[in-house]
Specification:
Elements lengths: L1 E2 L4 E2 L6 E5 L2 H8 L3 E9 L2 E8 L2 E7 L4 H13 L4 E10 L9 E10 L13 E2 L2 H12 L5 E9 L11 H6 L4 E3 L2 H11 L2 E11 L4 H4 L5 H22 L2
Parallel strand pairs: 3-6, 3-7, 7-12, 8-10, 10-11
Antiparallel strand pairs: 1-2, 4-5, 5-6, 7-11, 8-9, 8-12
Helix pairs in contact: 2-5, 3-7
The structure holds 1-O-phosphono-alpha-D-ribofuranose (R1P) and uracil.
1-O-phosphono-alpha-D-ribofuranose (R1P) binds next to strand 7.
Length: about 240
């Protein structure tokens, strides 16, 4: 079965998928796999498969923003993927979670438009508990700060004239903000598969991103490397359970 948007044959996929926004990050992740091969590069969706410590894994980029990412998640699940782990970047809400830290997302605030068109207002966007545990354990085996908690998913990246809701979510205890996790968690719940996410902090959410956003620092590169290793090790842990 050809997945029409990813342009991948479902039979070529794997039960585990690591998903990330950036097609070049997908390629970097694929370099950690044994026997990696690129299946397709269609729109923003770049798909690789290979094995990690003997476990078959797909790596797929989903682009920026929930609507486009949702298409990717839906097609992967239709293609037989059972566990999806997002490896992303995020802005921090707290000096306790400085740039270079990792955050394992236990649940996501649905501050985007996509999931409102899928489920009622009160439906939660929650990670799978086993995936969270495996990610948090695996991250704890690497060097550096790791936290777990609630993240916020927004549609807008650069601010307009409306206030971003950062202050209230920070006060409520959220740790970081990004743009796709709520879509991933809601779609995984709807389709009965497991999902989790880990993000590398690249700055502070309440900064003026038009002025200061720079995800291309050494600290962020090290954190991304660490979260990639974490996701791969988490998959091995989940597979051995
Ligand atoms: O690094 P990725 O996975 O793309 O994640 C974050 O970075 C992008 C914004 O620059 C958004 O996709 C956001 O969710
Ligand atoms: O959505 C995002 C992603 C990375 N960094 C941010 O500040 N926001």
């Amino acid at each position: 079965m050809l997945l029409p948007i990813l342009q991948v044959q479902a039979e070529d996929l794997a039960p585990y998928a690591i998903v990330c926004g950036d097609p070049f990050r997908a390629e970097a992740i694929s370099r950690k796999l044994e026997g990696a091969r690129e299946l397709a590069f269609s729109r923003e969706y770049r798909t690789f498969v290979g094995t990690y410590e003997g476990v078959p894994v797909a790596v797929v980029s989903h682009g920026v923003g929930s609507p486009g990412a949702a298409v990717c998640f839906e097609e992967l699940i239709k293609g037989g993927v059972q566990t999806l782990i997002r490896v992303g970047t995020a802005g921090s809400y707290s000096a306790d979670v400085p740039p270079g830290s990792l955050v394992v997302s236990t649940a996501a605030v649905r501050e985007e438009g996509l999931t409102r068109q899928l489920v009622p207002h009160g439906f939660p966007a929650v990670a799978d508990a086993d995936v969270v545990r495996a990610l948090y354990e695996a991250a704890g085996e690497t060097d550096g700060v790791v936290r777990k908690g609630i993240t916020v998913t927004l549609d807008a990246f650069f601010q307009g004239v409306e206030e971003f809701p950062h202050r209230k979510y920070k006060q409520a205890g959220a740790l970081a903000v990004e743009m796709e996790i709520a879509a991933l968690y809601v779609i995984a719940s709807l389709r009965g598969v497991r999902a989790g996410a880990i993000v590398a902090v690249d700055g502070y959410a309440d900064a003026d991103l038009r002025e200061v956003y720079n995800p291309h620092t050494d600290a962020v590169a090290r954190a991304v490397e660490r979260e990639i290793e974490t996701a791969l090790r988490a998959i091995v842990k989940l597979q051995s359970e």
